[in-house]
Amino acid sequence: MYMFDSAAHRYVLRHCDELEQFRREFVEQEKMKPCHLSNLMPDDIEKLINRHFADWLEQKVLFSMFQFYELHT
């Protein structure tokens, strides 16, 4: 789904201060999944962010836009 998969884009997603709240929310949601048992090590968290955060963030934005549209039409 996420159309940019370069090292530069991943770097921005991992290090942009404005996205910190979203990264935390993403990690907390991942920790709640039964397969992770909430014992994620820092390396595991980095891998999750590298592999899945961009898609998660895109879906979150799209869902927010949909909700906004539904409320205002």
3D architecture notes:
The structure is a single chain. Helices cover 71% and strands 0% of the residues. It is mostly helical. The protein has one domain (7-71).
Chart the SSEs and their pairings.
Elements lengths: L6 H9 L4 H13 L9 H30 L2
How do you describe this structure in short?
By secondary structure, the chain is mostly helical. It has helices at 7-15, 20-32, 42-71. It is built from 3 helices and no strands.
Which terms would index this structure?
73 residues, single chain, mainly alpha, 0% strand
List the uncertain runs.
none
Which range does the strand content fall in? under 5%
Provide the structure class. Answer: mainly alpha
Shape: globular
If you average the pLDDT, what whole number results? 85
User: For the terminal residues, how far apart are their CA atoms?
Assistant: 27 Å
The overall strand count is 0
Oligomer: single chain
What radius of gyration results from the CA coordinates?
Answer: 14 Å
Number of helical regions: 3
Largest sheet: none
Count of all domains:
1
Helices and strands, in order, run as HHH
Helical proportion?
A: over 70%
